[in-house]
């Protein structure tokens, strides 16, 4: 009779009662637990539904449901769950696909991890963050040559829907030189999750990868926890001194999840309906990536950001661009011309490039950007035939070399161009 009783706690557990539920937010009495604590709400069918403490209202505790389809009833029992803010980590995760709660999705049985890491990360000293001084080979010629990434850099890939963000991420996974790849598929279509695993993570790459996937139809708190779990897993491998590539698709869906949570808690909406917590979440998440001078490990992070209606002044786009170390903007007009990856070189930027490349490489990249910008600034005049040849030597050069520029950018998804090959091609084509 006593075999099923858990005696791990040496004090009485606080058990509350459910008094209100509006489809997303639960209110409980007699459950005085701190924010971020986990809870189990015993549903009418006897199943324990998970929830998390997100706030207070007087003597009532506000919880966010993790199981949106649970059959809750008034007066239901609310029990503490000690596993709420902890992520199970370990080398056993490599090659596996898990959900926001760490449960396996790949049908390969339970993940036998023995170590733990806080979902919200561990507080760090900013002086322990190492400088970005080494180039990171992405495998994409345009990025390696003109937007050179560094080990420990955080990059935002900004584009509207259907312009090729996920395809570019797949190219980067296949071509990146990393010890561990952590992928967070947050708020995407379920079809895209299975497609990503089948096409973007082939055999050899899959064995060094960890995928955290939560589709768009799941509860907002699950989408938020999935982003935190993916980052926590990356932090664990960085603490072991490994070079980690973290990819999150997409940061916008994470902000949307926090918007739902914030509005449910009564936060005032600001620009485009985003409460302050949604905009504040982005730096808290992004700042956890980077290089660690103590362990020698690093997290090079790529975050996709959806520009709704191709609006690159969207508040989420603006917040992400302000906190990352570089951004890649994909152009719909280039995609319509069949140029993939459709990287708008003139509007994209790597803030660490000057610290990781040589002067000859930097000068050749500047030449390419100058030619690109000269064409884009005068595109309408050129296409209308209003520009007369010989009026400006820079524009003349931009028109003459436009095919060379587009050919340099083009790369099929299955091709991999190393960093050395990219730099050599850039210097040969645009060097002095």
Automatic annotation (TrEMBL):
Keyword Nucleotidyltransferase: no
InterPro entries to which the protein is assigned, alphabetical: AAA+_ATPase, ATPase_a/bsu_AS, ATPase_alpha/beta_chains, ATPase_F1/V1/A1_a/bsu_nucl-bd, ATPase_T3SS_FliI/YscN, P-loop_NTPase, T3SS_ATPase_C
Catalysed conversion reaction: ATP + H2O + cellular proteinSide 1 = ADP + phosphate + cellular proteinSide 2
GO CC, any one term: type III protein secretion system complex
SMART domains according to UniProt: AAA
Domain of life of the native organism: Bacteria
Enzyme Commission number(s) from the entry: 7.1.2.2
Top-tier EC class: translocase
CDD domains: ATP-synt_flagellum-secretory_path_III_N (cd18117), ATPase_flagellum-secretory_path_III (cd01136)
Protein location: Cytoplasm
Domain AAA+ ATPase intervals: 151-334
Keywords carried by this UniProt record: ATP synthesis, ATP-binding, Bacterial flagellum biogenesis, Bacterial flagellum protein export, Cytoplasm, Hydrogen ion transport, Hydrolase, Ion transport, Nucleotide-binding, Protein transport, Translocase, Transport
Gene3D superfamilies noted in UniProt: 3.40.50.12240
NCBIfam families in the record: fliI_yscN
Family recorded in the similarity comment: Belongs to the ATPase alpha/beta chains family.
Protein name as it appears in the record: Flagellum-specific ATP synthase
Species in which this protein is naturally found: Allosphingosinicella humi
Lineage, broadest ranks: Bacteria, Pseudomonadati, Pseudomonadota, Alphaproteobacteria, Sphingomonadales
């Amino acid at each position: 009779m006593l075999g099923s009783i858990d005696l791990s706690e040496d004090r009485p557990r606080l058990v509350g009662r459910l008094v209100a539920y509006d489809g997303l937010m639960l209110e409980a009495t007699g459950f005085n637990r701190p924010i971020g604590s986990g809870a189990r709400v015993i549903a009418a069918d006897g199943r324990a539904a998970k929830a998390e403490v997100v706030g207070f209202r007087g003597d009532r505790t506000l919880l966010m449901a993790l199981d949106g389809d649970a059959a809750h009833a008034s007066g239901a029992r609310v029990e503490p769950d000690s596993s709420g803010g902890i992520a199970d980590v370990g080398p056993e995760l490599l090659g596996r696909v898990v959900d926001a709660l760490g449960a396996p999705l790949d049908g390969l049985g339970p993940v036998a991890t023995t170590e733990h890491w806080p979902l919200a990360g561990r507080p760090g000293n900013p002086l322990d963050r190492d400088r970005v001084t080494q180039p990171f080979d992405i495998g994409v010629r345009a990025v390696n040559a003109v937007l050179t990434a560094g080990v420990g850099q955080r990059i935002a890939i900004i584009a509207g829907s259907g312009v090729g963000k996920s395809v570019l991420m797949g190219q980067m996974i296949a071509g990146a030189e990393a010890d561990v790849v952590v992928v967070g598929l947050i708020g995407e279509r379920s079809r895209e999750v299975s497609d990503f695993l089948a096409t973007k993570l082939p055999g050899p790459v899959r064995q060094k990868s960890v995928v955290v996937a939560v589709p768009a139809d799941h509860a907002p708190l699950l989408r938020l926890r999935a982003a935190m779990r993916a980052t926590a897993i990356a932090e664990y491998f960085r603490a072991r001194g490994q070079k980690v590539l973290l990819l999150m698709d997409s940061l916008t869906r994470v902000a949307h999840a926090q918007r739902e949570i914030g509005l449910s808690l009564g936060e005032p909406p600001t620009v485009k309906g985003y409460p302050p917590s949604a905009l504040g979440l982005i730096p808290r998440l992004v700042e956890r990536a980077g290089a660690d001078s103590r362990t020698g490990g690093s997290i090079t992070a790529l975050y996709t950001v959806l520009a709704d209606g191709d609006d690159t002044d969207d508040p989420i786009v603006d917040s992400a661009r302000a906190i990352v170390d570089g951004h890649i903007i994909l152009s719909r007009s280039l995609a319509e011309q069949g140029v993939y990856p459709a990287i708008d070189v003139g509007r994209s930027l790597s803030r660490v490039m000057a610290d990781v490349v040589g002067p000859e490489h930097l000068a050749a990249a500047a030449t390419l950007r100058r030619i690109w910008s000269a064409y884009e600034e005068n595109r309408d005049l050129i296409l209308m035939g209003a520009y007369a040849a010989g009026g400006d030597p820079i524009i003349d050069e931009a028109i003459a070399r436009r095919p060379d520029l587009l050919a340099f950018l083009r790369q099929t998804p299955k091709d991999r161009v190393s960093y050395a090959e990219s730099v050599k091609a850039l210097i040969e084509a645009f060097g002095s």
